[in-house]
Amino acid sequence: MGPPVEPAGIESFYLEDRTIEPSSGFRERALISDPGVYDRAEADWEGFWAVQATELLDWFDPWDTILEWKLPFVRWFVGGTLNVSHNCLDRHVAAGRGDRVAFHWEGEPGDTRTITYAELLDEVERFSNVLESLGVTRGDRVAIYMPMIPELPVAMLACTRIGAVHSVVFGGFSSDALRDRIVDGQAKVLVTADGGWRKGAAVPLKANADAALGDTPSIDHVVVVRRTEADVDMRPGRDRWWQELMEGAEPHRAPEPMASEDLLYLLYTSGTTARPKGIMHTTGGYLTQVAFTHKYVFDLRPEEDVYWCAADIGWVTGHSYIMYGPLANGATGVLYEGSPDFPSRDRWWAIVEKYGVSILYTAPTAVRTFMKWGTEEPAKHDLSSLRLLGSVGEPINPEAWMWYFEHIGGGRCPVVDTWWQTETGAIMISPLPGVTTLKPGSATRPLPGVAAEVVDDAGSKVSEGGGYVTLTRPWPSMLRGIYGDPERYRDTYWSRFEGRYFAGDGARIDEDGYFWFMGRVDDVMNVSGHRVSTTEVESALVDHPSVAEAAVVGAKDATTGQAIIAYVTLRAGYQPSDEHGQSLRRHCATRIGPIARPKTIVFTDDLPKTRSGKIMRRLLRDVAEGRDLGDTTTLADPAVVEEIRARAQSAPPED
Ligand code: WTA
Fold it and tell me: Which distant-in-sequence residues (6+ apart) come within 8 Å of 603 by Cβ?
């Protein structure tokens, strides 16, 4: 079978034909099991979102206008007022659900805390008063640089309560990254901790922050949570201990009524340039779509479910699906501070068993790591409480999907592969687990109310085949811009295809209209004039029983334009050898086509990753292009592996 030639799009050769229907038991109990929801939403999509905003949220004042759209600037629920912390806390407590657990928190050393909605509200009210006592008022920016401890949700919700804008900086970022974000957002207060626990060691957050604070004149005060008891420098007048401030804080603070379009938060994300973009999210539309997607994509039953999104709150996944979606829906969540292999590689499965987790949401990179560690780790624990699994962050290879489905979900839990971005704020393309026939490796179709299309280079719609992912109309949780840079906002997202939002991803649409994501467009290789997705070749490699993880890059090649270089980590029990490399190359050729046969296979013990778990392909490409890797298999060449390691350590923590 030769590859189809589609010069205008992105070619896709990887054929995956397994399908999995929702079980009748799941379908019967699901919140949505009627496929008619898609057509009804489509018939009046503005009205559809307005119904969600009414049903899922509490408004102080109703809106006058559902939508104002003047490309690329959008306003939703104009004239409406609400408060995010009121929606996440007060209304649940007022309805008699104050004793429900908001978070089962577990620190890496094994310390735990159970936090009810009433307790969370109490701390949020106090910290709201603390922030105001430090001079923070409506509209001010507050930077937050913290480990995954209960004070992090408290700080974020307190900002939303008084109408301040939070800018959470992932605790794994360096002081330079923190400084740049504080400066760009002109934050007045920084909330941090003495440190946090990671793989048994204390990460020195306050010391990192001190290095940044030399160049951040906007910061008046720093609030420091005691967590690791590390010695820290406290600058008199500027730095204050969280615990001391909270003891003296007034207990009550009413939620500030905010306009639907008031800025809720900034979250920085990297693009094609080195300078991070401050993505802006506002209040009413954002909360509507995160609550909607969290409820229906995860089929949430807040009275019964224990929901665990195992991301870090410092990323958008944590903002939308640890914090705002689950809390708006009154869910009970798990919050875990540390690493999955501390003290041993079954830590996650111990947590699932201990708290009876029923919904687990994680990333393909985690799934592939667990594959590498072997099925005996999850097998040590009773995972029968699980009923639904989710995936986010990158394309999930069919083999990883099946492994997750079988070895974590016991073959009974639907896997929802959810596509979205920091910029989209909430899930856009994903199954509805009681409706959608699943295809392992596909995020399936746009959710009700969402419109997405794949287009070719000229911007024409592709009904079947490969191309660029675009969104064809505004959605409630859409980014409102890049902080301080409206031109960059227009250029990055709205100029490539007229009238469309350009997501920067490639995908294939199959005969059922399902989306098969193929990674960022700049991760697409061009081999002998054929475009091949790095993700597709990776899927083929991971499909081989010996392969735990693979990263594929296109390196410049005099003959073919680009050549495929594959970095491969083997599962326990397999040895790298020349012969093995040849069989992997043959495997790719068989699975996808001769065009996908890697020129070089480099065996390595570990792949270089960002702190969020994304493989640093750019670095691998540089390594591949910077040296002659030969034209066949490179056996665990120590020099290459050393170079990857050294450069991963010195590279900035973003991708
Ligand atoms: C990728 C994370 C395939 C994609 C929420 C997107 C995915 C980028 C998926 C956004 C998925 C995320 N399938 N690719 N289910 N989810 N991506 O901003 O390339 O950290 O553009 O947001 O991750 O990453 P971000």
Answer: 568, 569, 570, 576, 581, 634, 635, 636
